[in-house]
TrEMBL record:
Keyword Phosphoprotein carried by entry: yes
GO biological process: phosphorelay signal transduction system
Protein's UniProt name: histidine kinase
SUPFAM superfamilies xref list: ATPase domain of HSP90 chaperone/DNA topoisomerase II/histidine kinase
Matches recorded under Pfam families: HATPase_c (PF02518), NIT (PF08376)
Chain positions covered by the region annotation Disordered: 599-625
UniProt entry tagged with the keyword Cell wall biogenesis/degradation: no
Biological source species: [Actinomadura] parvosata subsp. kistnae
SMART domains: HATPase_c
GO molecular function annotation: protein histidine kinase activity
Enzyme class: transferase
Gene Ontology cellular component list: plasma membrane
Sorted UniProt keywords: Kinase, Phosphoprotein, Transferase
Length: 625
């Protein structure tokens, strides 16, 4: 795969480069073509809607001046609503081209929804002319913001001319606002707004005419130099000075219509200019993409032909190596663990390439070395187990003799202090015996301690507590009279003792460790609860996993010998050990003993007598037969 990768890196780079060049070049052409779609679905419906809103604004101003009737206003509102519906229908097809356009179109929808409230204020007489004009102005300003957002195009000349045409259209909008304000007598506030509008309109026209190309500028110049426009400017000056010129509406109406027609012609001309430019860009993109694609195909064919032979040989070597690592070596290791003898055939890979043949021989050598290492590891593990077992057996013999002598000394002792010291020494010997049994369990053997008859589970719990150094803190609560099969008593005592010792070590010295037990539907359950600091959920999950699936013993992991011993003992007798959080903040270990190891109480023994005994009575140590 690396050889193929070496070939694929430059080939992929070529393909990516070809794709980028094609996408960028074709994207420019498609963007130019999209300009026409945007014009059809967004800008043209917006211009039509602006024209209708301008007329509605003018006739609403006339209504407020009592120079227009309500039927004319209603008719114009119907036209505006039709233009609004058309804009909503067409804009929905193109508003998702980008997040910016979608946001602007949604802003237009929001402003259009305000039309009904503006109309209601006018009809109810709650709005004067200035307030009504400004309300319509807000709607139209949002539409012109949409024009500026969607007029972006990668062709700089077309974009610059489109921007100027939009500014000239906005100058026409300012003239329409002047037209609505200049009807009749003008108040001081209206005159201030009128003066600002006139100044802004003249500035936009003067600036735009200087930037338009001749084809777009000449119609605008013809309008600016017409007698009607000059007459309109004189009327503007009169209104600014506080006068009320005659014929204002008729003069501005004709000019507004002429400006609107000039703007539509300029926008249409720009739209027509974008189409041939887009065709040219697309043609160049297809030519460039075709040439680059041909080069890429030739390069791919040549490179793959050169690498096919070497790739096949490397593939055969790879399969042979995978067979060794996934099948041969695991099979050999499994046999070695069982003590069986193994034979490993040599690894051979047919190849005409010297380097690959050398790698095959090297793999064969590595395979043989790995088998030898596995054999050595198995022998070492077995030897360590023998050492553990021999040392533990010797220690057990000595400890057994020591306990016999201690028992004899306890019988002969009369001094209470000496008797107490002998008891402590006997307790220490018991703990040493448990550690010796731990070594035997680590070696894989079975400890020799056992019982021939069932033992009450309460005595099992007490015997486990007696094997712990800090046994004074252990509180064994009363439990039922059920008994434990003698064959598993030693291992269960050892298991519970390990859990109790762990609870005493990892909890404050002044807190008790509670051992309780009760019957369950599938056997008998012991609980060992401490009041320490507890464990994190991740740590609990890790320990529970180890207890459920005992891992292989690792000599380097000596800090967790107790956990390993517990997991081994639990797996030996199908006992389930689970750790969980305690309500007191510590940890609770639950030991579920299967029902096949649990026997009923003795028929002649009173079942309630054991339950009524106080928990603090002297502890009875369970001794082996």
């Amino acid at each position: 795969m690396k050889i193929i990768g070496l070939l694929l890196v430059p080939l992929t780079s070529m393909v990516v480069l070809w794709g980028v060049i094609t996408a960028v070049t074709a994207g420019e052409g498609l963007e130019l073509r999209e300009y026409k779609t945007v014009w059809t679905n967004l800008r043209l419906p917006a211009y039509k809607l602006i024209s209708e809103i301008q007329r509605e604004r003018l006739i609403s101003a006339q209504l407020l001046r009592n120079v227009a009737d309500e039927s004319a206003v209603a008719a114009q509102r119907t036209k505006t609503d039709a233009a609004r519906d058309s804009f909503a229908q067409l804009s929905s097809k193109s508003k998702d081209r980008s997040e910016e356009i979608r946001t602007q179109v949604d802003a237009v929808y929001t402003q259009l929804d305000r039309l009904d409230s503006v109309r209601g204020e006018i009809d109810a007489g709650l709005s004067d002319r200035l307030h009504s004009v400004e309300a319509y102005n807000s709607v139209i300003d949002t539409l012109y913001s949409l024009h500026r957002k969607v007029a972006l195009i990668d062709d700089i000349p077309i974009y610059e001319q489109s921007r100027v045409v939009i500014d000239m259209g906005y100058a026409r909008e300012l003239l329409s606002r002047e037209q609505a304000l200049g009807l009749g007598t003008v108040s001081a506030a209206e005159r201030r707004l009128f003066t600002q509008l006139a100044g802004n309109r003249r500035f936009l026209i003067d600036q735009g005419l200087a930037e338009l190309d001749p084809a777009l500028r000449d119609p605008q110049v013809a309008l600016i130099s017409s007698p009607a426009y000059q007459r309109m400017r004189m009327m503007e000056d009169q209104i600014i000075a506080g006068g009320t010129p005659m014929g204002w509406l008729s003069t501005t109406e004709g000019l507004a219509k002429a400006f609107n027609e000039a703007q539509m012609r300029a926008s249409t001309l720009l739209n027509e200019r974008a189409e041939p430019v887009a065709d040219e860009v697309l043609s160049r993109a297809f030519l460039l993409a075709g040439t680059a694609l041909a080069l890429v195909i030739v390069s791919i064919a040549f490179s793959l032909r050169m690498g096919t032979r070497l790739s096949k040989e490397l593939g055969a070597l790879r399969l042979a190596a995978l067979e060794v690592s996934q099948e041969r070596l695991p099979h050999v290791v499994a046999k070695l663990r069982k003590g069986e003898k193994v034979e490993m055939p040599e690894l051979s890979v047919a190849s005409t390439t010297v380097e690959i043949d050398d790698v095959g021989k090297a793999f064969s050598t590595v395979q043989q070395t790995a088998v030898e290492a596995a054999v050595g590891q198995a022998q070492l593990s077995e030897g360590v187990g023998h050492v553990f077992r021999n040392l533990a057996r010797r220690s057990q013999t000595l400890l057994h003799r020591q306990r016999i002598q201690l028992a004899d000394m306890q019988h002969r002792a009369t001094d209470p202090e000496q008797l107490d010291d002998l008891f402590k020494l006997d307790h220490l010997t018991t703990r040493m015996r448990r550690h010796a049994e731990g070594l035997i369990i680590l070696s894989g053997a079975t400890p020799g301690r056992g019982w021939s008859r069932p033992v009450p589970l309460l005595d099992v719990a007490r015997g486990a507590a007696a094997e712990v150094e800090d046994y004074q803190r252990v509180v064994v609560e009363p439990m039922s009279g059920q008994r434990l099969a003698g064959a598993v008593v030693g291992d269960v005592i050892h298991l519970i003792a390990e859990l109790i010792e762990n609870a005493t070590v990892y909890s404050p010295a002044h807190t008790p460790v509670i051992v309780r037990g009760e019957g369950a539907a599938r056997g008998f359950a012991f609980e060992v609860e401490d009041r320490g600091f507890g464990m994190e959920p991740e740590e609990l999950a890790e320990y529970n996993e180890r207890l459920a699936s005992p891992p292989e013993f690792d000599l380097a992991d000596s800090d967790r010998l107790g956990l390993f011993v517990v997991s081994r003992l639990a797996a030996r007798h199908d006992i389930r050990v689970t750790l969980r959080g305690s309500p007191y903040g510590g940890t609770t270990a639950i030991v579920l003993i299967p029902e096949e190891h649990v026997a009923e109480p003795e028929p002649d023994a009173p079942t309630k007598a054991v339950q009524k005994e106080p928990a603090a009575r002297p502890m009875r140590v369970v001794r082996s037969d």
